[in-house]
Amino acid sequence: MKEKGYKVIISGGGTGGHVYPAIAIANELKQSGVEILFVGAKHKLEMIKVPQAGYKIIGLPVQGLQRRLTYKNIFVFINLIKSIFKSKKIIKNFKPDVVVGVGGYASLPILYIAFKKKIPTLLQEQNSYAGMANKFLSKKAKKICVAYHNMEKYFPKEKIVFTGNPIRKDLLDIQNKKQDAYKYFQLDQHKKTILVLGGSLGARTINESLPAMMKEIKERQDIQILWQTGKNYYDTISKNVKESNYTNLNIKAFIDKMDYAYEIADLVISRAGALTISEICFMEKPCILVPSPNVSEDHQTKNAKALVEKNAALMVKDSEAKEKLIPLTFSLIEDSKKLIDLQENIKPLSVKTASQDIAKEILKILEDES
């Protein structure tokens, strides 16, 4: 290692799917004595989560492009120019040896300047379908770490390294937590538990499909629900639960102890974001995926299909969820053989050493360039 130690900028974010893997990579690099600076988008999740993890972050005014004809894209362009100029100052002051992009529009300005300054870069693509930012940035990147096979259609084959997606630190140590988890969520260890993940803000279709299940759950003595509604839906759903005197369920706006939640889940219902899928694979949980239609290039459907094609998950289209999700859920939770088959088929899809492997690739670039 060079005399003053290496410096790395990690950039990207916007959602937990970008932020949590970035923090996991930083934690690995930190163990090798690397100095780390995060660069993200102002007012986004990374501006909260990164400092909580103990790292410094600088926010850029960069915004995502509106995918329709609107005057708002004028401000997107203006803020992109501002972010490029700010990125020049960041790189001049911090003097990074490598810049790492974890996806999302927040990574564009800083990686663009890194290219201009001939600073080596590494990209991490979490999804089975490459986003616009990473496709553009891949032309100059040294390495591209991916979580799905067959990514040669998006990136130069010689740059691709299959690593999987890093997951949250608390999931890595899941042993002997089951009893504590049941107690924490005040759930019955003798009942099958359905974990419903509505995201941090709330997945409208999933949240609107569940009330029909609640009525049936009330009559059942063998099934219970742990339901993360998201903050936008919590008040309405919580009020409905109290007024209807529903039992056998625990409603949360946000689940802060996901290790506990996954540990007691017999079945997971979720959107198909890259981070969530990686966590479900790591925890080896049977799942029903309801891909969000409100994402770029419909990448969540592609993520879900990558599992469905291996008989490692079931999928319900968002447009069909209100009709099909509840019957499928009850059918599956009662089919022990199908649950076991899904669990066995999802096991090989988990990569246990993703954050370490990505950190190794970054360290290789640092050593090669020094």
The helix-and-strand class reads alpha/beta
Any idea how many domains? 2
Helix content: 40-55%
- Highest-level CATH class of the largest domain: Alpha Beta
User: Percent of residues in beta strands?
Assistant: 15-25%
How would you spell out the order of helices and strands? EHEHEHEHEHEEHEHEHEHEHEHEHHH
- CATH level-3 fold name of the largest domain: Rossmann fold
**Approximate shape:** globular
Instruction: Supply the number of helical segments.
Output: 14
Largest sheet, spatial ordering of strands: 3-2-1-4-5-6-7
Relevant terms:
single chain; 370 residues; alpha/beta; Rossmann fold; 2 domains; 14 helices
Written account of the structure:
There is one protein chain. The protein has 370 residues and is α/β, with parallel strands linked by helices. The chain has two domains: 7-165 and 352-369, Rossmann fold; 171-349, Glycogen Phosphorylase B (Rossmann fold, 3-Layer(aba) Sandwich). 44% of the residues lie in helices and 15% in strands. The chain has 14 helices and 13 strands. The chain has helices at 16-30, 46-52, 72-94, 108-116, 132-137, 178-185, 204-219, 234-244, 258-264, 274-283, 299-308, 321-333, 336-346, 354-369; strands spanning 7-11, 35-41, 57-60, 98-101, 121-125, 143-146, 160-162, 192-197, 223-228, 249-252, 267-270, 287-289, 314-315. The strands form two sheets. A seven-stranded parallel β-sheet has the order 3-2-1-4-5-6-7, sandwiched between helices. Strands 10-9-8-11-12-13 form a six-stranded parallel β-sheet, with helices on both faces. Helix 1 (16-30) links the parallel strand 1 and strand 2. Helix 1 packs across helix 14 (354-369), helix 3 crosses helix 4 and helix 7 crosses helix 12 (321-333). The longest helix has 23 residues, at 72-94. The radius of gyration is 21 Å and the shape is globular.
